[in-house]
Amino acid sequence: MDGYTYHNIFATKGIEYLVVIAFLLIIVPFWIVVKRRRSIVTQLNETLGILSTIFLSIPQGYYYARNHMWAFLERSGMARVGIDDFLVNVVGQAEIRQFAAEKDFIRKGELMAEIVNGDKKLQLIAPISGRISKRNELEGRGVENVSSDPYSSGWFYEIKPSKWKAETSLTFLPKRPVNGLAMK
């Protein structure tokens, strides 16, 4: 067997080099995919952040309920109630139906109004309890009338709150004392 030479791959550490090369051939494409996904997620988060600051109005001093309703306590002791800017932008072209009338007493969690878009209905739940003193006549109008300024002219009801502090305070306070101090 002339011309044939045998190299012991284990003696020359060739197997270690092959393992390193195989590892790099696997990890480099994987790393590229991970970096792309991270950049896509970063771009998406930046875009959503820009969209929320450009298109959404979120004023301070308002109580925001989980169902996209807000309440604002005025100096007179009356609270105005309406839907937040996010919900206004999401529902688009829809009609408003108000159920509660002036001088009605409404409890937190009760149905106040409805937004209707074709055969779809979105129920608006009261964020606070109290007696309704004024009703902004939005019946039959579209949400686009509210969308121009949902926090000033787009309010639904003016309510004399019965339990403002209890209903708008945090509900997840610790039961045990924190650092030896009792929460009241």
Give a brief rundown of this model:
The chain is of the alpha+beta class and 184 residues long. It has helices at 14-55, 85-91, 143-147, 164-168; strands at 63-64, 69-73, 79-83, 95-98, 105-106, 111-117, 120-125, 130-135, 157-161.
Fold blueprint:
Blueprint: H1 14-55, E1 63-64, E2 69-73, E3 79-83, H2 85-91, E4 95-98, E5 105-106, E6 111-117, E7 120-125, E8 130-135, H3 143-147, E9 157-161, H4 164-168
Antiparallel strand pairs: 1-2, 2-3, 3-9, 4-6, 5-8, 6-7, 8-9
Q: Which descriptors would you attach to this protein?
A:
4 helices, six-stranded antiparallel beta sheet, 184 residues, 32% helix, single chain, alpha+beta, three-stranded antiparallel beta sheet
Low-confidence stretches: 171-184
Query: How far apart are the first and last residues' alpha carbons, in Å?
Result: 95 Å
DSSP strand content: 15-25%
**Looking across the biggest beta sheet, what order are the strands in?**
1-2-3-9-8-5
Q: What is the H-and-E element order?
A: HEEEHEEEEEHEH
Tell me about the largest β-sheet.
Answer: 6 strands, antiparallel
Count of helical regions: 4
By secondary-structure content and strand pairing, the structural class works out as alpha+beta
Question: What is the typical, i.e. mean, pLDDT?
Answer: 76
* Apparent shape: rod-shaped
- Rg, Cα atoms, Å: 30 Å
Total beta strands: 9
Give the helix proportion (percent range).
25-40%
